[in-house]
Amino acid sequence: MRRVTGEQQATVVTDAWDFAVELRSDPASAEARAAVLADPAFGQSFTDHMVVANWTVDGGWQGSKVTAYAPLSLSPAAAVFHYSQEIFEGLKAYRHADGSVWAFRPDRNAARFSASAARLALPQVPEDEFVAALRALVTVDEAWVPSAEDGETSLYLRPYMIATEAALSVRPAHEVLFGVIASPAGPYFNTGPKPVSIWLTTSTIRATPGGTGAAKCGGNYASSLAGLAEAVANGCEQVAFVDAVEHKWLEEIGSMNMFFVYADGRIATPELNGSILEGVTRASVLELAADLGHPVEERRISADEWKDGVRSGDIAEVFASGTAAVITPIGRVAWPDGDLTIGDHSVDHGVGPVTTKIRTTLLDLQYGRTPDTRNWLTRLA
Ligand SMILES: *Cc1c(COP(=O)(O)O)cnc(C)c1O
Fold first, then answer.
1. Considering the entire predicted model, what is its pTM?
2. Residue at 371 is within a domain
3. For a 10 Å CB count at each end of the chain, is N or C smaller?
4. H-helix or E-strand containing 225?
5. What is the mean pLDDT of each run of 10 residues along the chain (381 residues)?
6. Ligand 1 site-directed mutation target among 238, 255, 287, 328, most atoms within 8 Å of CB
């Protein structure tokens, strides 16, 4: 490995994030791109380019660029394959009616990426460079951002960081890659939101106190998949996890945060406890719901409160929140010896009025259909 002197290092750091653009010689044809944009499945197709930057313990960040989307070449000994030193983010670029392209609260994703990096002993990406990386990629691949007329379509952006050093020693890696890829995304629910069914598991735990639950890292997802498989085996679409200590307090639904709408108008979500991931959508729903006149509560909510509230009618609606699906209505909860239907399924496919209102309010903001009074939008292109 090349060691750089102090002086060279200063130069490297200054030049670190210039996002040199290497346009690919064989971009997708306009027809091929149009075919993808006509019906984008989530996370299946990727744009022509990607961002990469490399970090070494001696040289810091260098070589940031926008380059052709292509496979990476890594040693089989790269630390990420063995010890899961990896983090990621997920956010969307939205095309507005005037053709401009915007991100929703990307500063929050940047800050969360920093926090996740700290927890996984990965280097920091300066938060303004994180946003600059998104802008660099979206500027080059702007034609891949679906048009405003296509409803809830967007360009999903996936920043990530992996330990690339070829070394099996157990310590924070000395070589790391930061990247951003982008994937056109259609509406999560093709025919409008439909309530999903949830399996309430107590046999699989997603995250533990002091663990990595509050960081956005691949390891959390790997450890949640057995719970998801259990849900599917029991005829449900998604899984709800409880806390690791008492197996009693609700934490998350799959990779989404969860909300309860009470018949009296209150809205509650599990309080952040160190093992729940703090969603940008979650934070935004809390503010928007309060604006809409709902008392909002962040507190511990037990699985029994959920069941009892649905039985008694105190809980009128349940939904989950996350960037990919925005707001997912929950229509049913099942567990090893029980099964409950939530809300009135004769009305509007079972999507409750409060869930619908919050979902519409959020989407209208993201797509620029209502004024951005909180400065939540950042222009990318
Ligand atoms: C990403 C994520 C969420 C949702 O976060 P958003 O910022 O709203 O997309 C919720 N839970 C987990 C575990 C996540 O990884």
1. 0.94
2. no
3. N
4. helix 218-233
5. 42 68 97 94 94 97 97 98 98 97 98 98 98 98 90 94 97 98 88 89 94 97 96 96 97 97 98 97 98 98 98 96 95 96 72 95 96 98 97
6. 255
